[in-house]
Amino acid sequence: NRRGLLFVALLLSTTASAQQTQPPPQTGTAVISGRVVAADTGKPLRGASVTAGAAEISGGPQKRAVTDADGKYQLSGLAAGNYRVTASADHYLDMHFGQLQPGPVGLNNPVRPIDLHDGQLFDTADFQLSRMSAIEGAVIDEFGDPVPNVSIQVSQIQFAGGKRRLMPVSVSSGNGPQPPTDDKGHFRMFGLAPGEYYVSALSGAFADPNAAGGFGVTFYPGSMSASMAQPITVQPGHDVTGVEF
Asked: What is the pTM assigned to this prediction?
């Protein structure tokens, strides 16, 4: 009807007007620069990505730069404000500026926001990135034979619902979930940050709801009870090998 058409026209007009009056993205004259190197060798990391976003806004717009052959980068045209700066590179763990080590941000591993003024050059936003770590080993059955096609899960103790719980950690190969054990029962879970992990083997319906048979969920070093599981400590940039259970 006519009243409805008028309402729609008014709504479209208001929306268009609001879009026209929205301010353009803020730009400025401040600059953040620095260098990204490998923590274990000190060699520059070429092609590393460095981003800066408003410290108070998660998921907001970001400025991005890529390091050159010397590991150097520059983020220019920044407006005055507080920024959280993050560096990342293939096969290395992400780091936020100010962190003492890679991994979750917390009281013992805080982020240091960079407070910029108009025209300021902050040229010491340097990063040392640690290589991703891995847990590697094999799964065998009660006769000592290798068990293929078993899914490996890594977990950490976290506080959830006011209790300490064993919570799975999402570990991706970059191309999706990491593969199950091979024909020799071998596995390698990579892309891990430093910390303590609990490793378990899942097969049959525990790994795939449509599957049949398989073994019960087994925790390293060989128990079906989570309370008997032993943690595996992963150090920055180092793999843990020989984890057989």
From this structure: 0.67
